[in-house]
Specification:
Helix content is 38%, strand content 17%. The chain is α+β, with helices and mostly antiparallel strands. The protein folds into 2 domains: 7-43; 45-112, no CATH class. The strands form 2 sheets. A two-stranded antiparallel ribbon has the order 1-2. A two-stranded antiparallel sheet has the order 3-4. It starts with 9 loop residues before the first helix and ends in a 9-residue tail after the last strand.
Length: 121
């Protein structure tokens, strides 16, 4: 077994150090971008949420609470479709629904959807 701290392969060791530095820099850039977009979404005045394939809420921004009166834990524990007494979406990715806020008032929403597939690997 070769000791990587020995002087036998100084080019390999330096190459590994450069590669590690490159990866650390790329990670820092991605972290900064993620933070910027998270702030943008979280502070949007429009409701933004994501659902899994079973229809469970997996993410929502603060506008969801402000507009409906339901807290984030209530949203995450509940069924989004239960907020709507009548929802007949077509296969369209753009439609309107009426939901009911916690205080009972009707809230008309214009919804645009997009499927986001997450691939492992």
């Amino acid at each position: 077994m070769t000791d990587i701290t020995s002087n036998e392969h100084p080019d390999s060791l330096e190459s590994a150090r450069r590669r590690i530095a490159e990866l650390e820099q790329a990670n820092a850039v991605l972290t900064a971008r993620e933070s910027r977009y998270r702030d943008l979404v979280e502070n949007a005045r429009d409701m933004i949420w994501t659902l899994d394939m079973a229809g469970n809420v997996t993410f929502l921004n603060s506008a969801c609470e402000a507009i409906t009166g339901y807290s984030k834990p209530e949203w995450l524990a509940g069924d989004l479709l239960a907020l709507s007494r009548k929802w007949e979406p077509e296969k369209s990715t753009h439609f309107e629904i009426r939901i009911f806020a916690k205080d009972g008032r009707a809230v008309d929403l214009e919804v645009s959807t997009a499927e986001i597939r997450l691939y492992a690997g």
